[in-house]
Every structure is written in C-alpha cells, then in structure tokens.
Predict the 3D structure of the following.
Amino acid sequence: MMAVFAFLAGVALVLAALWDVFRSLVRSPLRAGPFTTAAEFAICRGMLRLFHLSGRRAILGAIGPVSVPARALAVVAALIAGWALVLQGAEGWILISSSNAPASPWERLYLAAYAVATLGFGAYEPDSPTARLLTAGASLTGFIVLTFSVGAVSTISQVLAARDAVVAAMRAHAAALAAGADPEAALDRTLDLVASPLSAVASAMRTLPVLHRLHGETESQAFSVALDRLDQALPTKPADPRAQMAAQAMDEVLEVLSRGWLGRWLEGPDTDRRARIAAFLRADRLTPRSEP
C-alpha cells in the first residue's frame, strides 16, 4: 500500500513540476508555478528584507543572480523527488548493479537524480520494462527542464543587457550635460540609444518574471536613477516618435513595478510618472532629485 501511495504521490509531483516548467519557462506571459513561486518568494523576500535592514545595495544587486538559478533548482529538485517516489512503486524495479539486490529508497533517489541530470544509470539499473520506461521518462523530463532553464537564463540575460544599455545611455547623457552640451542635441543623441532598449525592458517586464532583477549594485547603476534622468530630459508633451516611445515604455515599467506579483515595489496609489519615479528612488534607498 505504501509503495502505491509513493508511486501516486510521485506522479503528482512530476506533473506539478512539469506544469511549473510550462508556466515559468515556456508559456507567455511567464508566471511562477508552485515550486518557482516558493523559490522566488523566499529569495526575493529574504534578500529584500536584508536590504531594508542593512541598506547595502550589494544585496539588492544580488537578487537577480541568486533568484534565477534558484527558480531552476526548485523545479529540478521537485522533479527528482517526484521520480524518486515513482521508482518506489515496486521493490524489484531498481537493482544494485554489482549485487542485483533491490535498491534502497535513498539509492532510488540517487538514481532519480542521475536520470534527471541525463547522466545515465550509474551503479543502479532498472530491472523491468516498466522501470526502464519510467527511468527513460525521468531522463526525458530532466532534459526538457534543463533545456528550458538555460533558455530562460539566456532570455533574462538579454533583458539585463537592455537595462544596462539604458543606464549607460543616461549616464552618458548626464555627463554630456555636465560638460555643457546643448540639452536638445544631447537628448537627440540619447534617444537614439535609449528608446529601443527601454521598450525591450518594458516588454520583458510585462511577460517575464524580472521585477527584482533590474536593481544595480551602486547608485550609478540604478535603473531608477536612469528613469529619473530620462523623465527630466523629456519634454512634457514629446513630439519626437522616439521620445514618445521612451515615455510610453517608462510608464509601462513603472506600472509593472506598482503591481508586481511579489508585492508592490512602489508604495502609494499615484499614477503620476514623477510620483512613481520618486517612489522607485525611495524604494531603492535613493533620494529623489525632485519630488512630484
């Protein structure tokens, strides 16, 4: 009876892990599944709490690098646990290669991890058609999860590259103004560099779980500072299509930050862009350059 219960529980866990992969790594827009939700919540909430207590921006900047692999590891761990339970279904399913004795539960867990990692069977082997089919299924699902995990990391890396392009462009804009450049000419050059990557960041924030991966470790790298500089540089009613694109993208970013699934990052009900940017700076523990 216990073996049947373990088998059914394992099947449910494997299906839940695959559903998590579909929601968090494949489906668009992406959302967290049951296991990635737990990993993301624990990492982001814990590190944000540490940041709020310590004020150290290094902690804020580390949220992205830590939470990306944590999401993948959460799904892989659930998948391994599920297949380990499935392989408990019959005593003779898994044997120790050297002695042909039935493998223990811990040894079956080891085999499940080996199979999910697509490394083969190791010191244990399935000894029935059903067990071989199940082990092959473990390897197949492991391959799928690992492949989509790498793809998700690559996609998020592209978003971070676009964010860095926006930050670098606005730093260059601020330096040009400080050197005495004409504001209109400086803005014209900046819009060529910032409109497209900012639109890419806004699009990704609507469809990817990247809310707390946009923080910089220093004030000069802060995305909130870049948006503040851009908003102050843009005219109130921009006529330039590039300026309109940048303004719309900025509003979309701020809207997402106001309703993140991990909780609102920007406090307050204001919909005014200046108010939201000021809230973004305060949330980043930075001083708004001009209060709305």
Observations:
- Strands lie at 94-96, 124-126.
- The chain has a mean pLDDT of 85.
